[in-house]
Batch of 2 targets.
Target 1
Amino acid sequence: MQERAAELGKNLEFIELHKGLDLDRALSKTAAAQGTDVYIAAGGDGTLAAVADCARRHNKVFAAIPCGTANVFAKEHKIPPTAKEAAELALNGDIVTPVDILDVNGKTYLCHISIGTYSWITLHTNAEAKRRFGRIAYIFSAIKLMLQERIWKFEIVIDGKRIVRKASTIMVTNAGSMGATTMRWGENITSDDGIAEVCVFKARTIGHYFALLFSFILRRPHKHLKEYFQVLDEATVRGTRDLPVRADGEKISNGGFTFKIVKHGLQVIVPPAFKSGSAAAVAG
């Protein structure tokens, strides 16, 4: 990648993320020293969100190289799945489009926020198993939880309107893709329409989960087991105190969260294959 950047007459500086790193400060120094125009993140959706947060804060263009388990952001925006192709796009792409972001307490998240069964599964799936088996590793954790037939009561406030639901999972989606699969959380979910969806899933038994699975495979509604609400501005979800909340694959809290949808909050380099009414070519 360094050689390719040199061929294109561009400077490239690497920052290795590690626990305790003040990424915002590190990127600020790089931007000040070299006049950085693009922040490129290589990793899973959690890493992408962390770098995107800095790109948003510093008003820089963002590019992604997917190297994680699910790679939801990359799949949603048609970014090539191989590191080499994605790196070429990041260095030489000439199309930038604005996408929406989910803001939680001032932090940027790109794709999903979940509480309930789904977040419990991702939190309790062994990291080594994920590395070796990818998304298949989640199945073992899922079966274990399904056998417990867990369901919780949630209070949801969407743009000032309060509703209460019993559900196994609440999923906030800014991206329709489920990641390493062609299935989607919903058919009309996009990342650049200024709308986030709150998806309420009510599965309790294994039979319910199989019914949900087939509804996703067949891309059909299932009124009894899944319900959707649109968020135009802000929403709060509150559940049982010990339930983990996950955002883009990372645990961010327990019990509940509040988020805002920020329309076109991030500028992203995308390939021509990404269809967006707001895409525009970058001059020069």
Target 2
Amino acid sequence: MPLGTLDRTPPPFFKQGPSALSKLMVCSALALFLMVADTRFKITQPLRSAVATVLYPVQWLATRPVVAAQFGADYFQSLGSAQAAEARAREQLARQSLRASQVEQLQLENERLRKLLALRNRVEPSALAAQVLYDAADPYTRKLVIDKGQAQGVVPGSPVLDEGGVLGQVTRVYPLVSEVTLVTDRDQATPVLNTRTGVRSVVYGEPTGSHAGTLELRFMPAGADVQSGDLLTTSGVDGVYPPGLPVARVDKVERRADSAFARIHAIPQALTTGTRHVMVLKPTGELLPARPPADDPVPARKGGKK
């Protein structure tokens, strides 16, 4: 064998070089330097963008089976939800159709009874749609401002409703906006009627305390027939609210032996926080005929006893 073909390098056992610990420390320092430099100077951002662009088709192809499986699951789930919603809608439509037929029959009977008793027809108030602009700045009251005012025909005392029920009453009117006092304000009193018993009463707002944002049914005897869940609607005797509008539902009834009155708390049916669109009605007092003038007072007798 020629001498030039022999391997003159030392075997691996005799090789000299940096130790594994030294290599680990150098690589760790280099990695730390690169991370700091990338965080501070974004030196690898172009490289990262190029790699992401090249790998995007591969990622897109890899995610197609997962997306297809999710689409199929969502489709069958949506189909089941749609079928269940359709069944509930059909059932609700059937109940509403039955109720509508009953309402038409009751309305016909009401008209006939009014004609028989020569009673005047109920006046339907006109409604004006409005939008809530913002809440009033006073933290001690519960008021909000709507975008309708005197220019649109809003008058003080107008009832304000949302999709749930009575929200409050217009207390101040400006040319382009109006201020609405909510039913939960401490100074707001609303005459109501218990739809279960037919008893009339008055609810007051409770803006603070443990029952903040609720209503209190005051001056009710401790033995009054009021139960949790009773619906309170407007009675229509105040000349402001039309009768039959939902106001609140009784939540808690507290009867104490040391008090002659019961503490009754109710939850308003309207969305007193977060509502955006409301309806402003004309006060029923403006739609009713004017009261007849009072009789002239009887003159005092002349020549009375001295």
